[in-house]
Amino acid sequence: DAGVTQSPTHLIKTRGQQVTLRCSPISGHKSVSWYQQVLGQGPQFIFQYYEKEERGRGNFPDRFSARQFPNYSSELNVNALLLGDSALYLCASSLGYGYTFGSGTRLTVV
Amino acid sequence: GEDVEQSLFLSVREGDSSVINCTYTDSSSTYLYWYKQEPGAGLQLLTYIFSNMDMKQDQRLTVLLNKKDKHLSLRIADTQTGDSAIYFCAQGEYGNKLVFGSGTILRVKS
Questions:
Q1: Are β-strands B31-37 and B85-92 bridged in parallel, bridged antiparallel, or unpaired?
Q2: In this predicted structure, what is the pLDDT of residue B95?
Q3: In whole angstroms, what is the distance from residue A105 CA to residue A7 CA?
Q4: Gap between the terminal Cα atoms of chain B
Q5: Phi first, then psi: what are they for A74, rounded to 5°?
Q6: What is d(CA B81, CA A72) in angstroms, rounded to the nearest whole number?
Q7: Dihedral of CA A7/A95/B24/B65: which sign?
Q8: Helix/strand/coil for A85
């Protein structure tokens, strides 16, 4: 079975631009979460979705948004990019516990 | 609020045991996790323990949980060079977000 897949793997954007990151969960997993990992730190929670509804939101500005589709895949959108948004963005899926993470999208904002 | 703390760095010799420690603040967390991250990669779930358990063993890995002191440890027996990575402790409730520590860098010397 395929694990959690994320695309793209790497991305370079300019300040002020918008970006969309994509995630496909493990088959059968209805919960998808997004995390931001800045270099040298642990992952920070951004969003959680379950059955297409937002279940939780971390301490991130409104420039960050997400959604989950009927097939349980998910997108994370970030508007008006800042240099500080440069990070590894991780997606995780689960059945409720034992979260499985994807390899992440490395976003660089220049 | 929720907080997870880990020591920054651990260096061991190949073949020795490694013990990585973690303290957490949220006593309501039902699950405690250990994740491994290799350079440039996502997070790999190593093991987890329910809060009603004191110990869990899985091959070379032993997790000890002291609920009174809110202390979690991961022991890796017969540490190998391939175990060199960053290890993250995380806490969470069923179906909810994970709160991560800042990670412990494990260096294994041959």
A1: antiparallel
A2: 81
A3: 6
A4: 41
A5: -145, 155
A6: 38
A7: negative
A8: helix
Measured CA to CA, the distance from residue B62 to residue B56 in angstroms comes to 6
pLDDT along chain A (110 residues), means of 10: 91 98 96 96 96 94 97 97 98 90 97
- Looking at CA atoms only, how far is residue A16 from chain B in angstroms? 26
Cis peptide before A8 (omega within 30 of 0): yes
Is B108 in contact with B84 (CB distance < 8 Å)?
A: yes
- Suggest the residue from A97, A105, A108 to mutate for an interface test with chain B (most B CBs closer than 10 A): A97
Answer yes or no: do B88 and A42 touch at CB < 8 A: yes
Q: By the 8 A CB rule, do B89 and B24 touch?
A: yes
B32 neighbors A82 (Cβ within 8 angstroms) = no
What pLDDT shows up at residue B10? 97
Please state, in angstroms and rounded to a whole number, the distance separating the CA atoms of residues B9 and B78. 18
* Residue of chain B whose alpha carbon sits nearest to that of A95: B95
Question: Are A104 and B100 inside 8 Å of each other by CB?
Answer: no
What pLDDT is attached to residue A96? 80
Give me the pLDDT at residue A86, please: 98
Q: Do A44 and B100 touch (CB under 8 A)?
A: yes
Report residue A110 as tokens.
Answer: 């220049």
Residues of chain B with pLDDT under 70: 1
